[in-house]
Design a protein that fits this description.
The protein is of the alpha/beta class. It has one domain. 49% of the residues lie in helices and 9% in strands. It contains eleven helices and six strands. A four-stranded parallel sheet has the order 2-1-3-6. Helix 2 runs parallel beside helix 6 and helix 7 packs across helix 8.
């Protein structure tokens, strides 16, 4: 029986807060199962709208040493001289790293590995993907407007957008058309609650899925991508699992408009930047 994966936008944005080697592993995993990965132009828009904020999140912690002065009495000390030299080197390195940040912001096609992979995933345009020229696009939009007005999940408490509703309507459509099971990866509370790295789908969404698709098909919520990938026979390393578990424990520096404070977590890892060209 077919099984498809839907990944919430904020999970993609979290790639900017994962070590480069492990981040590349997650990206490779997604490309390996792209035929089972549901993408929508709504997710693409949200990712590209908030990518720069996710990068700026890391720039907040990249600061040059300031306000440090060696007392005059100790300026002739060898340790003092060595320290001043190290600070000068650090300042120079931070300047170069900031230039690399600017390169990623300015030209992501050449300098941002996450962006490169996401572009390929968004452009695959398979029958399970929703994009601008999809025939069902406008019908789905009307259904999404209706459920939003009625207060149906998935949505945030203060949500004024129908984006989550569009994604859900498409998920149901794909499951029904393919008689498929669905796995959703999300941490922001839109689709249910997360407790101790386990996801519990909203009761109404679970009931609705069974009634609109069929009772033999299932939909499950996972807060961790590393665990969801295992359902698709992907070999996820222990390091990848631990990295993601650590990530969700760290508070964010900046919260984007698409991610709640609970969802957008962690700060960008400097090794994320591609080698200078």
């Amino acid at each position: 029986m077919p099984k498809f994966l839907f990944v919430d936008t904020c999970i993609y944005l979290d790639f900017y807060r994962i070590r480069t080697d492990l981040k590349n592993g997650f990206l490779a995993h997604l490309e390996a199962i792209k035929d089972s990965l549901i993408t929508t132009d709504q997710v693409e828009m949200e990712y590209k709208k908030n990518r720069q904020d996710a990068i700026l999140d890391g720039m907040q912690i990249l600061k040059t040493p300031s306000g440090f002065t060696v007392p005059p009495l100790l300026r002739d000390d060898k340790s003092s001289t060595a320290l001043e030299t190290d600070i000068a080197k650090m300042t120079k390195c931070i300047k170069k790293l900031r230039q690399r940040f600017d390169a990623i912001l300015k030209d992501p096609i050449r300098n941002d590995r996450v962006f490169q992979v996401m572009q390929r995933l968004f452009k695959k345009k398979q029958p399970i993907d929703l994009y601008r020229k999809s025939e069902q696009r406008y019908d789905l939009r009307e259904l999404a407007k209706k459920r939003h007005l009625l207060g149906y999940p998935p949505r945030k408490k203060s949500d004024t957008s129908i984006g989550d509703a569009i994604n859900w309507e498409w998920i149901v459509h794909v499951a029904k058309e393919n008689n498929a099971d669905i796995i959703i990866v999300s941490r922001d509370g839109d689709y249910g609650i997360n407790r101790d790295n386990s996801g519990y789908l909203n009761d109404w969404l679970k009931q609705e899925f069974r009634e609109r698709v069929n009772r033999q098909r299932s939909v499950e919520l996972y807060p961790l991508l590393s665990r969801a990938l295992k359902e698709f026979k992907v070999q996820v390393s222990i390091e990848e699992e631990r990295e993601e578990e650590t990530l969700v424990k760290d508070p964010p520096l900046i919260s984007t408009s698409v991610c709640s404070q609970d969802e957008l977590q962690g700060s960008i890892e400097l090794p994320e930047l591609l080698p200078a060209k």
